[in-house]
Design a protein that fits this description.
- The protein is an alpha/beta fold.
- The chain folds into three domains: 129 residues, Alpha-Beta Complex (Nucleoside Triphosphate Pyrophosphohydrolase); 103 residues, translation initiation factor eif-2b, domain 1 (Four Helix Bundle (Hemerythrin (Met), subunit A), Up-down Bundle), CATH 1.20.120; 159 residues, Rossmann fold (3-Layer(aba) Sandwich).
- Strands 1, 2, 3, 4, 5, 6, 7 and 8 form an eight-stranded mixed sheet that branches.
- The protein is globular and about 75 Å long.
């Protein structure tokens, strides 16, 4: 098959029908894969695009075929994030109408094996599509296709599957993408630093409100805006700050997982889906893992399946209600959980069931390790606990009051240690981290940046 919207033959070009094609954006560490079309294709030679091809049959199936054929990446190494509404346009030079079906995939590798349809590739931030670089002309409507599947405030607010660290990265991508658009629009509309800053500050505010229980999202958005020079900030500063902070955040999560892997016991229990915990267990490879299914979304099932595929661990899945039974009857040496938020007193906000797991572990004398980057420490005292859809618990006709809390709070006295990118911390150490992170919030009050010591800013801006 061949790239989209370009093609190596003329299918659909002469009969007046729309040519349907797929375009996939593969994302890794906040960057997407861009491919340059070779001379062996029929159209748009030398231009850059995503992984593309004609949508013969079912687009959802064909897009995975194109990924494998054009990159050598197998289906097990990519996971679909979302598909978007087709982008329809007419290329007057070709006298051809295209309908591009866009997809976004998370990709676990950057190892690419090019087909003869492309002669170069690059992992780049999506905003590179907007940059006026002479040697990077993109295929028509590439950015429009990306915007159909890119993260948004709404998609972050509605995401009930992924953990807080993952969603915090998506929030930074939202800021980065909008900042990139504003920089690109300067050619047409001129430069307006104050207007750019006001728009991005308003967007940052909406991101802060999207998931109020997730301190890591707030801290990372605040770090971006604080590092963009407050009252002197503009879209270029925000674009630079987000790019640097995406790498910083990924490194922090990976370092926390690597540290935790050194402390993983031979037999552990966990629940919910924390990407950092999952990575720690993959690296630590305990001989036995007990995973609570984690209702209502049952993301624990995904964790169990991943561990059974990627490690030699013996993995057991059980209902949330069986947590006490499992810890009392099975040989569990350690509880390992993630955190959506760590409060300044050392208590932990996480997926419902974490409190039960930790309380039972405390009774059974089993240590509890919370794996989280320090960005997950909350700067406030209030706890805003999200709730799920009542129909996930009860969808009958009786007049019942339905409770479906999504998060609960685990007392600090039930936590043995926090494992972070800075090493292990005791619950008593968390207050100092919270005080440090409060400095990142000053941009909202005064428009000025806090000091370098409190922001951990991009050193290139100093």
């Amino acid at each position: 098959m061949s790239d989209s919207p370009a093609a190596s033959d003329d299918r659909g070009s002469d009969d007046g029908e729309t040519s349907h094609v797929v375009t996939a954006f593969l994302r890794n560490r906040g960057a997407v894969l861009l491919l340059r079309r070779s001379d062996s294709v029929g159209t748009y030679r030398g231009q850059w695009g995503g992984v593309s091809g004609f949508a013969e049959g079912q687009p959802d199936e064909q897009v995975r075929v194109e990924i494998r054929e054009e990159t050598g990446i197998e289906s097990d190494d990519v996971s679909l994030v979302r598909s978007g509404r087709p982008v329809t346009f007419v290329d007057p030079d070709l006298e051809r109408e295209w309908a591009v079906h866009p997809y976004l995939f998370d990709c676990e590798t950057r190892e690419i094996r090019l087909s003869d349809e492309h002669d170069a590739f690059e992992w780049a931030p999506p905003t590179a599509m907007l940059e006026p670089v002479d040697d990077r002309v993109t295929v028509p409507e590439l950015w429009t296709a990306y915007e159909r599947v890119a993260p948004t405030v709404r998609s972050i607010a509605a995401d009930g599957e992924h953990g807080a660290a993952y969603l915090s990265l998506r929030a930074l991508e939202v800021l980065r993408d909008r900042a990139g658009v504003l920089v690109a629009e300067r050619t047409e509309f001129g430069t307006d630093p104050d207007g750019e800053w006001d728009e991005l500050a308003e967007l940052a505010g909406r991101l802060l409100e999207a998931r109020p229980s997730m301190a890591v999202l707030r801290n990372r958005v605040n770090r971006v805006m604080a590092g963009a020079d407050g009252e002197n900030g503009d879209a270029s500063a925000v674009l630079e700050s987000t790019s640097w902070n995406i790498d910083r955040a990924i490194d922090a999560d990976e370092d926390a997982a690597a540290t935790a892997s050194e402390f993983v016991a031979d037999s552990v229990a966990t629940l919910s889906r924390s990407g950092t915990v999952l990575e720690a267990l993959e690296m630590g490879e305990p001989s036995r893992v007990f995973v609570a299914e984690s209702r209502p979304a049952r993301e624990g099932i995904d964790v169990a399946e991943r561990l059974s595929e990627m490690t030699d661990s013996t993995v057991s899945v059980h209902t949330d209600a069986a947590i006490a039974h499992v810890l009392a009857r099975e040989d569990v040496a350690q509880v390992v959980v993630g955190a959506d938020t760590v409060l300044s007193d050392g208590s932990v906000v996480n997926k419902t069931g974490t409190r039960s797991l930790a309380l039972v572990a405390d009774r059974e004398g089993i240590p509890v390790s919370v794996v989280a980057a320090t960005d997950k420490v909350s700067t406030g005292e209030e706890v805003n606990l999200e709730s799920g859809d009542r129909s996930a618990v009860y969808d009958g006709d009786a007049s019942l009051d339905v409770l479906n809390p999504t998060f609960d709070v685990t007392p600090a006295e039930c936590v043995t240690q926090f494992v972070t990118e800075r090493g292990t911390l005791e619950p008593a150490d968390i207050g100092d981290v919270a005080a440090e992170l409060r400095g990142l919030e000053e941009w909202r009050n005064s428009g000025a940046s806090p000091t370098r010591e409190t922001t951990d800013r991009n050193p290139s801006r100093e």
